[in-house]
Design a protein that fits this description.
Layout (H helix, E strand, L loop, with lengths): L9 H13 L4 E9 L2 E9 L6 H23 L8 E5 L14 E9 L5 E8 L2 E8 L4 H14 L5 E12 L4 E11 L5 E9 L4 H20 L7
Parallel strand pairs: 2-3
Antiparallel strand pairs: 1-2, 4-5, 5-6, 7-8, 8-9
């Protein structure tokens, strides 16, 4: 087998690889980031059901192995497993208070080409909004700025960052992202809100989750939707 990560054939080849990855069991969606025909990152979305963190980790590893095998067999390409990021999707049927039901994270990532920037995609009212921000030395702040850009397009208000901190807690040294934001509602009422999320696969996803965690309930208030106490 030829060992390579370079992809020849342009968009058609990438679409073919995307279809192969999405055919893998448990994979519901896939996004491939490339630069000059070379695959730089593969983001896959999967609904993972596990009773503990160890089982969850093993299932993620199994998904990655399946993807590597499928791409190798169908396209004769040896992908580096480190380029594959599994984003966990949870069908939140019983905890609708955790995240606003009409705002969902589609993707949060950084790209180097054609410009170096952070990108956040949000789904709201069945429409995808894409926000971008120039990539700086502060990865978290750059991702938040991209989130703020995407969120402003939803017309649910605007947000700006007060501060962001990374915390390590507990015996297991769990890493959390803590965010405080200024939230301006569509009716121009303003308040400062806190949000938190666990850092699992990567920092960009955690930043967006923490931001939504901060403003979730206030979005409901601005739309006059019922909230849970």
């Amino acid at each position: 087998m030829i060992s390579r990560t370079s992809v020849n054939g342009g968009i058609f080849m990438l679409e073919s690889i995307k279809e192969t990855i999405e055919s893998v069991e448990s994979v519901s969606n896939c996004r491939i980031m490339e630069n000059n025909g070379v695959i730089e990152q593969v983001y896959v979305e999967s609904e993972i059901s596990a009773v503990n963190e160890n089982e969850r980790t093993q299932k993620i590893k199994a998904i990655v192995r399946s993807i590597l095998g499928a791409v190798a067999i169908n396209h004769d390409i040896d992908l580096d497993y480190r380029k594959i990021k599994v984003i966990e999707y949870k069908a939140d049927n019983n905890h609708t208070h955790d995240f606003h039901p009409r705002v969902c994270i589609v993707a949060a990532y950084q790209r180097r080409y054609p410009v170096q920037e952070s990108v956040v995609e949000l789904n709201c009212f069945n429409k995808v909004y894409t926000g971008t921000a120039l990539l700086t030395g502060d990865e978290g702040k750059s991702i938040f700025n991209a989130f703020a850009d995407a969120f402003a397009q939803t017309e649910l208000g605007t947000v700006s960052l007060v501060y962001m901190e990374t915390l390590t807690i507990g015996f297991n040294h769990e890493r959390l992202i803590l965010i405080k934001v200024n939230y301006c509602r569509p009716d121009d009422q303003r308040e400062q809100l806190l949000g938190v999320a666990e850092i699992k696969e990567d920092l960009p996803l955690a930043v967006v989750k923490a931001a939504l965690n901060a403003i979730n309930r206030q979005i409901m208030v601005s739309l006059e939707l019922p909230t849970r106490t």
